[in-house]
Amino acid sequence: MFNMKVVMVTGESNPLVKTGGLADVVYSLSKELVKSRKNNVSIIMPFYKQVNAKLTKRPVKVCSFEVYMSWRKQYCVVYKTLIDGIRYFLIKNDQYFNRDNVYGYDDDIERFACFTLASKKLLEMINLIPDVIHIHDWHPGMLPLLIKDDYGSPLNKAKFVLTIHNPAFKGLFDKYFLGNFYNLNDKYFNDGSVCFNGAVSTLKTAIVYSNKITTVSPTHRIELLTDEAISGGLNHVLEYRRDDFVGILNGIDYEEFDPTKDEKIVAKLKGNVVSFKKANKEALLKEKDLVNDDAPLYGMVSRLTWQKGLDIMLGNVESLLQRGSKVIILGSGESKYENHLEYLRAKYPHHLSIYIGYNDELAHKIYAASDFFLMPSLFEPCGLSQMISLHYATLPVVRLVGGLKDSVTPYVDDNLKYADGFGFYDYTYNALSGTLNWCEQVYKDKEKMKTLRNNALEQNYDWKKSSQKYLALYKSII
Questions:
Q1: Which DSSP category does 58 fall into?
Q2: What is the DSSP letter of 378?
Q3: What is the pTM of this model?
Q4: Contact at 8 Å (CB) between 206 and 194?
């Protein structure tokens, strides 16, 4: 077995802090690399205020040091804890990270500059020289350049992999702060290495200086190379690194989402998919005081934002309700969408249930009970909910973009033997409406529904396959 030292550097990771899918990916990939691949994996992340509530044992102090950011001097203390065989190094600085939220502050660039500089210093102080330093998104994006700029650093032996989870956030700041925060020379801005639209971008810097770049699905890789809107202009940068840029589909944690053992749902999956779906659907409809008849149930667990397709979905939801279907939505986001859903709930109180916020138990129930799962996203780099819904024999209804296209096979007339969901291409009300009409037509045929559900259960999107691809990528550069 080929064993490697891998260090993940990230703004967040399960099970300690999660604001989105980034945390899931870092943790699940790391866990699989340790468990199945027998590699030595460490995760470096900030010691946020929220971390204390998630720690099950007292972390051990590793070291302390000062970080110099031009005229600034920040004191950092590093703690270590072990979770699922992964070493977590938590960088504590109360000025920057002892706050109520993880992100969203005016000084986020400064906060993560300190974190990035501290990550480099930590690895050098404890003499942890990994084979691969795997950085995620913009937060630690300057790290490859910081190490390259320091010719004497032993970390120059390591190779870098960058994963782009969300290209919308590029870590942009004025070139003045290249020296003021990172102690770097303006030459990197002047030669174009870090310059993006007249500013410095930590994400572009990571693209330029990493040995390999990945994103979270093969289709999203193509979109980032070819679609200026989705890439936010990064397509021009990525084109220069095309040969070093790969798309690896994320997996999901089947230990957390296992319909045969899930304690959060009423009925476990014991072989009969029809009775499994029926029991969970009836229980959830009763819990939410919705009409319990033979009409289809549509579920959604999502941020309620423009990216998730709410603009084309809300009108279609009302059409579904008018025809007698049931809809259960869990999520929060933009107030205009939340308010519209509240209006629809008042109008159709026994057909629509909404939960503004997040509730993990309810999410599991929605995955298990729904007949169809709504994901009409404008764009979706990977998506995890469609994979979870498949694992619970719930048929995804998706716009065929990014990871949704890579993980769902839409049913058309001649592919019943292997189809596992429904899909459309055009981001329009009518395209989604036509697909929902097709869902309702198919729903009336119980044998077709049974076949599609069984097809869904046969899909396997656990992290074993994905981790093998990452491991092969690591090997290719060391």
A1: P
A2: S
A3: 0.93
A4: no
- The H or E element that residue 468 is part of is helix 463-477
Measured CA to CA in angstroms, residue 198 lies from 120, 173, 180, 193 at distances of: 27, 9, 17, 12
Rounded Cα distance between 114 and 137, Å, is: 16
How confident is the model at residue 2, as a pLDDT?
Answer: 55
Q: Residue 394 gets which letter from DSSP?
A: P
DSSP secondary structure, 325-338, as one string: -EEEEEE-B-HHHH
Phi, psi angles (nearest 5°) of residue 293: -135, -160
Judged by phi (left if over 0) then psi (alpha if -120 to 50, else beta), residue 422 lies in: beta
Helix (H) or strand (E) holding 374: strand 372-375
What integer is the mean pLDDT of 154-178? 96
- Nearest in space to 276 (alpha carbons), one of 208, 365, 350, 352: 365
pLDDT value, residue 444: 97
446-475 per-position pLDDT tens digit: 999 999 999 999 999 999 999 999 999 999
Calpha distance 396→422 (Å, rounded):
6
Interacting residues of 191 by C-beta distance below 8 A, sequence separation 6+: none
Q: Which two tokens stand for residue 447?
A: 């044998």
What pLDDT score was predicted for residue 7?
Answer: 98
